[in-house]
Amino acid sequence: MTHLLDSIQSPVDVRQLPRHDLPQLAQELRQCVLDNVSRTGGHLSSNLGTVELTVALHYVFNTPDDRIVWDVGHQTYPHKILTGRRERMPTLRQLNGLSGFPRRDESEYDTFGVGHSSTSISAALGMALASRQKGENRHAIAVIGDGAMTAGMAFEALNHAGVEDCKLLVILNDNDMSISPPVGALNRYLAQLMSGRFYAAAKEGAKQVLKAAPPLFELAKRFEEHAKGMVVPATLFEKFGFNYIGPIDGHDLESLIPTLENLKHLDGPQFLHVVTKKGQGYKLAEADPVAYHGPGKFDPAVGLVPPATPPKTTFTQVFGQWLCDMAAQDERLVGITPAMREGSGMVEFHKRFPKRYYDVGIAEQHAVTLAAGMACEGLKPVVAIYSTFLQRGYDQLIHDVALQNLPVVFALDRAGLVGADGATHAGAYDIAFTRCIPNMSVACPADECECRQLLSTAYAQNHPVTVRYPRGAGAGVQPDTDLQALAFGKADIRRQGRQTAILAFGTLLYPALQAGEALNATVVNMRWVKPLDVELLAQIAQSHERIVTVEEGCLMGGAGSAVSEALQYMRLQCDVLQLGLPDSFIEHGDPARLLAMQGLDAEGIVRSVRQRWPD
């Protein structure tokens, strides 16, 4: 039954409901999220956990005039449903459909585009200060999770906000989870705050007693702030200059709504700590919020079930097995992840080598410099990080690792297009932004077997190396069980042809081989963007009329650019066609279809070559 939800076209309709109807609305909204995600796949646990908070925010605040900024955006499906996008939910994360994250061009209620974590407080503060400067009376609300609060950027924003007099409300959505289980001192601190809830209960009980004696009640009110310091020390957030309220139950609308209404009328920066449960209302997700963080399609009545046939081995799994095998051989190896243990394939490594495993939380800058410090002391750090998240540690990559020429291996998962997560998570830029750094090397394995071999090659070097590989499975070439390395910086001719040579970087080798058959072209598995195999490149340029470079990365500054630069340096004349990702953001959709749309499948490569050279 969705009779209430059927009447909601916008938050204006939510605000017109009697308050006693809101729990029923929340129940219908939760079921709507579950029904849709089970059909499309997407983020589930986090969205089930923010239903009541979403209802309360749109009920109390005058959105979209009041600005809500959702951190990361994993938890915004209820928000999308209440803001006029319910009918489009079946298109979620599909080509030309709804984004899985807030987007400014999708709705006026999406005030800030997100996808990476820990940006909400900075953005909301910027909006609050802009409103103050323009003389506008509106609120800015940042909703941030306890996992995202571990990032330095969040604390930089808190540090600034605490000295500004503006209408800013920070809501800490504390569900004791990010994607992986929580880590670090901040999580312990929040747990202590929650365990101190006895103070709030004791205070309310005392009020009821003292109200019978008005003089004593007034005395108690004047004494309250001093008494609070004796029972619960001033919170970290109060030290930052915020008025801290909480923790309160984030699923109890009878607590949430009056609290938000009170905070709405207070001046200066406010901080509300709400406690929620990932997967709330769906028992299977409550029991295993990690598994239900981002499931594919499933039957809600049954839950997630193993596939009938074993899935192909993924690049992530290849990395995880390699990491364990290399660690068993070399006790210097340490593994580092910024809060992506499951996503990066490090669960088994954590079990087998707990003292050599470091989850630093959502803190990519720290992860990179931590690795640098370890490398200075003779350890061999391997940083498992998504390509899109290494962007956040770029200064540290240059200044702390490469400048000091430290032997750190960066295992870059999710390189290239990532499908349903879209532009915010695409690993399109790492070739361009790593190959330009002195001392760095860049490897692009073509398949699962080569991924393991190039990880071993990278580990054997005495300088920083990135090994980039895509999400999911590749050509299905099973890796060996040894730790054999390949020749450093050397390419391999996989097919001999005439006139045209296709230089393939990474997993696009396989569509390039198909195109090579159609074109009778030479096909080279380049393996390395830096160093390029310039000896082989010179041979190819001298024996072929034209060269085609193929890469699943941005064209500008990418592998094709490296080839053109090398040819120019060697003063070799050869017509070059560069194929890769265009100078535009590529949105969400099926990865294979997205690649085909960019002309990076076999047919697209053939078509591009024949258009360039019709003869």
Automatic annotation (TrEMBL):
<comment type="function">
    <text>Catalyzes the acyloin condensation reaction between C atoms 2 and 3 of pyruvate and glyceraldehyde 3-phosphate to yield 1-deoxy-D-xylulose-5-phosphate (DXP).</text>
</comment>
<dbReference type="GO" id="GO:0005829">
    <property type="term" value="C:cytosol"/>
</dbReference>
<dbReference type="InterPro" id="IPR005477">
    <property type="entry name" value="Dxylulose-5-P_synthase"/>
</dbReference>
<feature type="domain" description="Transketolase-like pyrimidine-binding">
    <location>
        <begin position="313"/>
        <end position="477"/>
    </location>
</feature>
<feature type="binding site">
    <location>
        <position position="364"/>
    </location>
    <ligand>
        <name>thiamine diphosphate</name>
    </ligand>
</feature>
<dbReference type="GO" id="GO:0008661">
    <property type="term" value="F:1-deoxy-D-xylulose-5-phosphate synthase activity"/>
</dbReference>
<dbReference type="InterPro" id="IPR009014">
    <property type="entry name" value="Transketo_C/PFOR_II"/>
</dbReference>
<feature type="binding site">
    <location>
        <begin position="147"/>
        <end position="148"/>
    </location>
    <ligand>
        <name>thiamine diphosphate</name>
    </ligand>
</feature>
<comment type="pathway">
    <text>Metabolic intermediate biosynthesis; 1-deoxy-D-xylulose 5-phosphate biosynthesis; 1-deoxy-D-xylulose 5-phosphate from D-glyceraldehyde 3-phosphate and pyruvate: step 1/1.</text>
</comment>
<keyword id="KW-0784">Thiamine biosynthesis</keyword>
<protein>
    <recommendedName>
        <fullName>1-deoxy-D-xylulose-5-phosphate synthase</fullName>
        <ecNumber>2.2.1.7</ecNumber>
    </recommendedName>
</protein>
<keyword id="KW-0414">Isoprene biosynthesis</keyword>
<dbReference type="GO" id="GO:0009228">
    <property type="term" value="P:thiamine biosynthetic process"/>
</dbReference>
<feature type="binding site">
    <location>
        <position position="282"/>
    </location>
    <ligand>
        <name>thiamine diphosphate</name>
    </ligand>
</feature>
<feature type="binding site">
    <location>
        <position position="146"/>
    </location>
    <ligand>
        <name>Mg(2+)</name>
    </ligand>
</feature>
<dbReference type="InterPro" id="IPR005475">
    <property type="entry name" value="Transketolase-like_Pyr-bd"/>
</dbReference>
<keyword id="KW-0808">Transferase</keyword>
<dbReference type="Pfam" id="PF02780">
    <property type="entry name" value="Transketolase_C"/>
</dbReference>
<feature type="binding site">
    <location>
        <position position="175"/>
    </location>
    <ligand>
        <name>Mg(2+)</name>
    </ligand>
</feature>
<keyword id="KW-0460">Magnesium</keyword>
<dbReference type="GO" id="GO:0019288">
    <property type="term" value="P:isopentenyl diphosphate biosynthetic process, methylerythritol 4-phosphate pathway"/>
</dbReference>
<dbReference type="GO" id="GO:0000287">
    <property type="term" value="F:magnesium ion binding"/>
</dbReference>
<comment type="similarity">
    <text>Belongs to the transketolase family. DXPS subfamily.</text>
</comment>
<dbReference type="InterPro" id="IPR049557">
    <property type="entry name" value="Transketolase_CS"/>
</dbReference>
<dbReference type="InterPro" id="IPR020826">
    <property type="entry name" value="Transketolase_BS"/>
</dbReference>
<dbReference type="InterPro" id="IPR033248">
    <property type="entry name" value="Transketolase_C"/>
</dbReference>
<dbReference type="GO" id="GO:0030976">
    <property type="term" value="F:thiamine pyrophosphate binding"/>
</dbReference>
<dbReference type="InterPro" id="IPR029061">
    <property type="entry name" value="THDP-binding"/>
</dbReference>
<feature type="binding site">
    <location>
        <position position="74"/>
    </location>
    <ligand>
        <name>thiamine diphosphate</name>
    </ligand>
</feature>
<dbReference type="GO" id="GO:0016114">
    <property type="term" value="P:terpenoid biosynthetic process"/>
</dbReference>
<keyword id="KW-0479">Metal-binding</keyword>
<feature type="binding site">
    <location>
        <begin position="115"/>
        <end position="117"/>
    </location>
    <ligand>
        <name>thiamine diphosphate</name>
    </ligand>
</feature>
<dbReference type="Pfam" id="PF13292">
    <property type="entry name" value="DXP_synthase_N"/>
</dbReference>
<comment type="subunit">
    <text>Homodimer.</text>
</comment>
<keyword id="KW-0786">Thiamine pyrophosphate</keyword>
<feature type="binding site">
    <location>
        <position position="175"/>
    </location>
    <ligand>
        <name>thiamine diphosphate</name>
    </ligand>
</feature>
<dbReference type="Pfam" id="PF02779">
    <property type="entry name" value="Transket_pyr"/>
</dbReference>
